[in-house]
């Protein structure tokens, strides 16, 4: 009887190991190969992937050997930042496939098709599942990564607060942040005798984060700044993951993963602390956080799901706004500095329309050179 029991356990263990092996083989070999075969049958090719890593090694090799062009004579910065895409476009055309680990990605450089997909077929395609898997600590299940009913619920709550009339109402908040930024520059210039070398990229990131903190957290602005700084640290920690895309690496307690998990917990605790304080004070402010809170309250969600909804959407609001705004502002200022005639025309228009007053939404709409 004892020998029979041992044989049963051995058989079950062997069956479990074989089952795990076949699942891994399907996920790592069969499924990626099948997807690539389907794309090849449609005339789409791409760089051959290696096992587990996909094309990650090509990314790193291409970036390490690329010539960095720092001139402002061309707007084609993509060739310096993403040299592997430039190389693959030249070799495989405007549409090709590549791999991040076992994740197959279709690259498309045809604006008309991209526009059609994003405006006509986006609900059919949905958001890529790997985005939520790999960026879960950073984005959760907010509007940037969710699909279906979850996405529809998020959009129903967030979209009305981002209509143009609502954004125009935030001009006062933006002005406060601009004054803070300009005062810091003036202080630095005065401290250095009238001339100062200011690297504005970090200032622009802080500025955009400052605006979002005021718009999102209202009177809890100082805590919003703390959350913003933690989110930036979390974003940096996520970007340092060396083997991002390799199956299972996000679960292994490497230093980068541990840092990301700790920051994710800090961000969650800070946001929920602000929420708790606002509930205790029974405050009803007209900010983005209050809108998210009311949306969660009117939903049939458990307490844990409600907390996740609030935390994930607060993180999404920050991350969707601060980096894109900062990069656009830096690029705009760089172009103005490189083209003094553009700068003169913009300054002339601002002086003419504003007449020494602080710009508001109506004034900005009249500015043809600025827009």
Automatic annotation (TrEMBL):
GO molecular function: heme binding; iron ion binding; monooxygenase activity; oxidoreductase activity, acting on paired donors, with incorporation or reduction of molecular oxygen
Top-level taxon: Eukaryota
Protein name (database record): Cytochrome P450 714C2-like
Localization: Membrane
Pfam families, per database record: p450
InterPro entries: Cyt_P450, Cyt_P450_E_grp-I, Cyt_P450_sf, Cytochrome_P450_Monooxygen
Record carries keyword Iron: yes
One Gene Ontology CC term in the entry: membrane
Keywords linked to the UniProt accession: Heme, Iron, Membrane, Metal-binding, Monooxygenase, Oxidoreductase, Transmembrane, Transmembrane helix
Record's keyword annotation contains Acyltransferase: no
Family, similarity comment: Belongs to the cytochrome P450 family.
Transmembrane segments: 6-30
Main location: membrane
Topology class, membrane: Single-pass membrane protein
């Amino acid at each position: 009887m004892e020998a029979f029991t041992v044989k049963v356990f051995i058989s079950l263990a062997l069956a479990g190991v074989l089952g795990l092996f076949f699942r891994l083989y399907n996920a790592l070999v069969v499924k990626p190969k099948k997807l690539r075969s389907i794309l090849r049958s449609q005339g789409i090719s791409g760089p051959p992937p290696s096992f587990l890593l996909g094309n990650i090694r090509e990314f790193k090799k291409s970036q390490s050997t690329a010539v960095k062009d720092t001139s402002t004579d061309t707007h084609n910065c993509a060739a310096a930042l993403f040299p592997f895409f430039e190389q693959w476009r030249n070799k495989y055309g405007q549409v090709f496939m590549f791999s991040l680990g076992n994740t197959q990605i279709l690259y498309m450089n045809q604006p008309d098709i991209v526009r059609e997909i994003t405006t006509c077929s986006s609900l059919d395609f949905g958001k890529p599942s790997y985005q939520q898997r790999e960026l879960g600590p950073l984005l959760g299940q907010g509007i940037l990564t969710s699909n279906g009913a979850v996405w529809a619920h998020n959009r129903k709550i967030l979209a009305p607060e981002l209509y143009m009339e609502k954004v125009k109402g935030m001009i006062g908040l933006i002005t406060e942040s601009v004054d803070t930024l300009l005062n810091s520059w003036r202080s630095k210039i005065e401290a250095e005798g009238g001339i100062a070398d200011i690297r504005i990229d970090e200032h622009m990131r802080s500025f955009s984060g400052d605006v979002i903190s005021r718009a999102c957290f209202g009177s809890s602005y100082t805590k919003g700044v703390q959350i913003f700084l933690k989110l930036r640290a979390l974003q940096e920690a996520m970007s340092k993951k060396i083997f991002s895309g390799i199956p299972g690496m996000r679960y292994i307690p490497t230093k980068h993963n541990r840092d990301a998990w700790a920051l994710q917990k800090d961000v969650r605790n800070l946001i929920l602390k602000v929420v708790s304080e606002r509930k205790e004070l029974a405050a009803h402010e007209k900010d983005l956080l209050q809108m998210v809170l009311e949306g969660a309250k009117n939903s049939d969600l458990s307490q844990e799901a409600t907390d996740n909804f609030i935390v994930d959407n607060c993180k999404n609001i920050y991350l969707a706004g601060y980096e894109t705004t900062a990069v656009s502002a830096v690029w705009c200022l760089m172009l103005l500095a490189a083209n003094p005639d553009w700068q003169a025309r913009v300054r002339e228009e601002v002086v003419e329309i504003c007449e020494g007053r602080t710009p508001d939404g109506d004034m900005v709409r009249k500015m043809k050179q600025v827009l």
